[in-house]
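Is this the right way to post structure tokens for a design question? Let me know if I should format differently. Anyway, here goes:
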């Protein structure tokens, strides 16, 4: 068994930056790394004054402000466990997270607090008090000496397929994730990262942590319209932008006038595949930016990335393992698949989380002993995603096992149908799913974004691109497709809406 690479307590990240360099830009306020270190110390001391039980959970339910940005580090320094809650979630979902995590303290505003039912042993504190403590609290905590295995955060999944479950992340998980991403992206102190994704999302929180590991500046930013992003990129000379495919679709459809995006040097994608047509649009819109496709899952943070110089030759590939990750493609019996043989993606190594909070049954199903071929051994995450690995060691996503459509005796990946629909040029977004069919086993429904005027053209393109058994029985056109709180297309809601219409 290999030893884990060295990690430090999460709250040591500000100590890596040049003291006078900008670390955090919010509104008109610029915070240097030296100031960030002091602010984390004061917020940590204030948290201890409010919650005096080591390991207690401190939740936050707020937009991207200074409190939300500092809490991951301050809670870790205070010996507490941070539970960030997506600000787009509603009261009942937040009630579940607060109850499930056993949070002792919630930082939020009065309007959000009013949407909650009373939770046992939960103190609710207004954000203004925490904000004041960052500047004025009369005590300051020094950097912690936490062990790498100490629990630092619980990140709850979006809950699109059931109630959210909390993924337990250690100091080592978060530190090594920051180091890994900063290293392979080549982040440097000159970079400025526009943090658009929710900070409750592992990919979103890593925008902060990887930038600070590299000594770079972060601009946390909430936006209503794509044009807000255009203005923010121009105003702050942003070099690095992370997104999910639906966001990229919105951005390439926006007006980038007067070289507004010329400062961008890297675009990083996760949360769904970048199809060739979208890659081409990104290159046309941001010609100076490298494109970094990536694959990840909250239970192990990030698994693979594709270097920019391989994107054009392998546009549908997930790439290879990121630093600190070991990726195996396995058969059900745990043996490693041959080249181009589809199997389950198994993630091994020190990025693997500690399981689901107070959920031994689901933990046992997903966190299982690593295959015998693993050099790390220990516990691995069995992802439930079907992938294949080619002879060059590049990985390709096939589909989630529980989402595969079994039709006419064939296992069909919804992703392949969706990519064909978008590649046709007649739709920018698509979701495919199966519905029971007495003759086929399952019939394919394809929901696409558009006005329906190109239905015949899309069907003709699909007949050329896909075999007969992959042709959709029905194509549904929608002007807007719903998204979940992380910005991804909400597949469950899209399928549920179709079923509701059939039942009406």
């Amino acid at each position: 068994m290999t030893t884990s690479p060295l990690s430090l307590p999460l709250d040591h990240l500000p100590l890596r930056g040049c003291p006078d360099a900008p670390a955090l830009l919010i509104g008109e306020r610029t915070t240097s790394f030296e100031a960030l270190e002091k602010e984390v110390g004061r917020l940590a001391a204030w948290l201890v004054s409010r919650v005096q039980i080591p390991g207690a959970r401190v939740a936050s339910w707020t937009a991207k402000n200074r409190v939300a940005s500092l809490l991951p580090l301050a809670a870790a320094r205070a010996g507490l466990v941070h539970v960030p809650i997506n600000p787009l979630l509603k009261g009942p979902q937040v009630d579940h997270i607060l109850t499930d995590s056993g949070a002792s303290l919630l930082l939020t505003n009065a309007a959000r607090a009013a949407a909650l039912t009373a939770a046992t042993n939960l103190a609710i504190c207004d954000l203004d008090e925490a904000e004041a403590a960052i500047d004025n609290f009369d005590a300051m905590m020094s950097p912690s000496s936490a062990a790498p295995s100490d629990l630092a955060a619980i990140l709850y999944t979006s809950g699109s397929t059931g109630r959210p479950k909390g993924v337990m992340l250690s100091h080592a998980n978060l530190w090594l994730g920051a180091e890994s991403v900063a290293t392979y992206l080549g982040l440097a102190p000159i970079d400025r990262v526009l943090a658009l994704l929710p900070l409750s999302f592992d990919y979103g929180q890593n925008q902060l942590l990887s930038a600070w590991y590299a000594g770079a500046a972060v601009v946390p930013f909430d936006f209503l319209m794509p044009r807000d992003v255009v203005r923010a990129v121009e105003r702050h000379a942003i070099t690095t932008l992370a997104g999910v495919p639906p966001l990229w679709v919105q951005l390439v459809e926006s007006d980038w006038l007067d070289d507004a995006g010329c400062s961008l040097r890297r675009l990083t994608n996760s949360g769904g595949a970048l199809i060739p047509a979208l890659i081409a649009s990104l290159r046309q819109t941001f010609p100076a930016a490298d494109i970094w496709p990536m694959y990840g899952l909250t239970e192990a943070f990030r698994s693979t990335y594709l270097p920019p110089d391989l994107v054009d030759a392998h546009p549908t590939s997930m790439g290879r393992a990121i630093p600190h990750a070991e990726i195996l493609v396995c058969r059900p019996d745990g043996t490693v698949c041959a080249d181009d043989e589809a199997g389950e993606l198994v993630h091994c190594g020190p990025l693997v989380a500690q399981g689901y909070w107070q959920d031994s049954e689901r933990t046992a199903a997903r966190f299982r002993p690593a295959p015998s071929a693993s050099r790390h051994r220990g516990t691995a995450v069995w992802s439930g995603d079907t992938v294949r690995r080619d002879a060059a060691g590049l990985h390709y996503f096939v589909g989630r096992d529980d989402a595969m459509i079994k039709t006419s005796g064939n296992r069909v990946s919804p992703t392949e149908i969706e990519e064909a629909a978008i590649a046709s040029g007649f739709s920018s977004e698509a979701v495919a799913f199966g519905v029971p069919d007495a003759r086929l086993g399952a019939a394919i429904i394809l929901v696409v974004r558009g006005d329906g005027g190109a239905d015949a053209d899309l069907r003709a393109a699909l007949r050329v691109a896909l075999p007969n058994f992959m042709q959709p029985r029905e194509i549904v056109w929608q002007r807007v497709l719903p998204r979940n709180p992380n910005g991804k297309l909400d597949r469950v809601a899209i399928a549920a809406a179709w079923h509701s219409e059939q039942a009406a």
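Format looks fine. Someone answered above. Worth noting: The first strand starts at residue 22 and ends at 26. The mean pLDDT is 92.
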